[in-house]
Amino acid sequence: MNGMAKHAVACAALLCVCGAANAQSSVTMYGRVDAGMDSPRSGGSSVNRLVSGGSAGSNLGFSRRGGLGRGGLAAVFRLEMGINLDDGTLGQGGRAFGREASVGLSDARFGTLQMGRIPSVLHGPEQCGRLRLGRRRRAARAHQKRQPPPRSARCCRWGCRRGRTTRSTTCSPRWGGIEFRGQYSFGENSTTIGRGYGASARYQAGGFDLNAGFQRQEGPDDAAGKVSAMVVGGSYDARFAKFFLGMTVEKNSCATCTGAIARMPGASTSEFRLTNLGVRVPFGQFTAVAQFTRVNDRSDYTALTGNRDANWISLGGDYDLSKRTRLYFGVGQISNKNGSQYVLGTGTAQAPAMLVGSSSGSSRNIYMGVRHNF
Questions:
Q1: What are the helix and strand counts (H, E) for the chain?
Q2: pTM for this one?
Q3: Burial 280-293 (b: 16+ CB within 10 A, else e)
Q4: Which of 11, 110, 257, 333 is exposed most, by the fewest CB atoms within 10 A?
Q5: CA 271, CA 132: separation in Å to the nearest integer?
Q6: Alpha carbon distance 344, 347 (integer Å)
Q7: For residues 335-349, b (16+ Cβ closer than 10 Å) or e, as one string?
Q8: Which residues in the chain come in under a pLDDT of 50?
């Protein structure tokens, strides 16, 4: 299907949903528009650019919860598309509803069962900062590497935008203040990936928002390997400040996996451990933000290079013009080690491909933008 056809399908789906929204007052339309400017610099090169989703991805969504009159049982659906404000295209590879497309049943006692394209179970608590680790290259080779990704205390590669799974089911019951989520996706005889599954638990009470999760994606057979990720962390709201702490461990031995879960070239098994510390301190309408991230690279490289670790620090702030509109700004810097070549992007925007991280020094990024929710 060509680009024009894809957009025609998206417009047709949007018109259908809007018609349903007019006919059913309980259908909720919501969204977010976020755009900014950043200036990443690394290795003596820099670029100034307009970015979409500087603090959070722009989106447009429709949802509904319709009671079935049977002891709290309800039908639910959610259709949510990502939008790139810098060029007006659809996000998530041009999918009409790439962020989520799901339908299911919800029960007040037993939770919700969903089917469709659904966020990973690792996608959960609020993040602290908004800078994102960018693409990385080996010092001895020119080809690009996979980023070891998170930009927050709760987020690993699967927990962010590209981690959403297709053709999966999710069950999310809640008992005693703890929400449990389980997820399973079918391999469907793919030649690159097999089945996928994961589980997470989230606890919210007394200012605490704690989350622990595990996700695994298998290859098409045992010989192909697998990708596993684990996230533990959360936040504590002390009113005068909100503190964040988290750890992500990701290990990848999958030889056939592609895209966001491709194994790093030059390693028989890639493994990253990220530790995140952050704080948000409110001062009226302004909130100061600080974050530190430690990247531990424990990948099994075919050539001895030493651990390509990195330290990353960012400082910034948010200013709320209203309950729906926010200005944001900040600066970040990452220090590379043993040939690691990380660069920083902003929010959902990748670092520019033309920038190569400094293998013996640091890379930085300055950004500012505006976000409006509706």
A1: 1, 25
A2: 0.78
A3: beeeeeebebbbeb
A4: 11
A5: 18
A6: 10
A7: bbbebbbbbbbbbbb
A8: 1-25, 135-166
